[in-house]
Design brief:
Layout (H helix, E strand, L loop, with lengths): L10 H12 L3 H38 L3 H29 L14
Amino acid sequence: MALFWPSACCSGAIMLLGVSAMLGQWWLGVGEVLAMSVGTALTTSCLAALTVLMRERMQRIAGRSTPGWQSLLTHGLALCGGLLIMALGLALIALAGTAAPPPMMHGPL
């Protein structure tokens, strides 16, 4: 029985392992998956550390100003972020009908 089971497997890792097994290079596939895992862990760790450091820096900068400005700044940034996400979503919806269909969706040959 495994002590740890991931909640979702990476489809790219599964494909790598499948292809490497079909080619008879199982251990190369395992090495590739480990390299992908290390890269993902490093990227996630760096982003988390950068987030914490920037939050502390922004709290120091905001501590110098009046509380009214802090509230206005945080709510304004939150509103801008929400509007940006909404605009990107609306752009994706608007452009969804203009994309060419995938080549495999043309029906049987």
